[in-house]
Amino acid sequence: MSDSAEAADRLSARRVRVMTAVMIIFAAQSARPPVDMPQRTVEYVGHFAWLALALVMLLILRTGGMWLRDPVARRLSNDEVTRANRAEALEWGFSAAMATAIAGAVVASLTAMPSVFALRMVILAGLFVATMRFVRLERDALA
Amino acid sequence: MPERLTNNLKATREGRGWTQGQLAEAIGVSRKTINTVENEVFIPSTVIALKLAAALGKPVEELFRLVEE
């Protein structure tokens, strides 16, 4: 295989592994979501670290990541099929976020639900589904 | 009548003795793109179809065709 195509494949495979690992960490940190506003400094740090990770995951899904790689490798790793995979993954993520928001609105209309808890559930559902869909599509494409 | 796009990219590429990586390099895409087009998982844009045809020295309609399902 040629050098640049081989490098692009290697980078794509690494991106799949990193995104899977980061999403597992991200989801694990949501295992005990806060049900109220953070009170202590350590809770604020944990909360904003989680939000920062959410923002990074969203940017990777929107742009393909690899911001510090050389432009040729980045372009090859974000070519037409990758962009199509990202678009489909974001479509799935949007649907999951909306479904979670609708379910949350139903629950919130029956009982009190803290906004910070509801928003975290929407973020988690959207990013988790989008990331896992992208990982699945990329794995199939790289096979 | 529903139609499906099929292609004989793999046979044409192998006929020239090229690997997926070599064809990918020739048209400036990743091997992943060639693999998904050959497996009919991904329908390429007109730009990629024209580049594939030019690289393999075949008309586009010889590489891609519509079949009724």
Automatic annotation (TrEMBL), chain A:
Keywords: Membrane, Transmembrane, Transmembrane helix. The chain crosses the membrane at residues 16-35, 47-68, 89-111, 117-135. This is Uncharacterized protein.
From TrEMBL, chain B:
Residues 9-63 form the HTH cro/C1-type domain. Keywords: DNA-binding. The keyword DNA-binding applies. This is Putative transcriptional regulator. Gene3D superfamilies: lambda repressor-like DNA-binding domains (1.10.260.40). The keyword Iron-sulfur does not apply. It comes from Novosphingobium taihuense. It comes from the Bacteria. GO terms for molecular function: DNA binding.
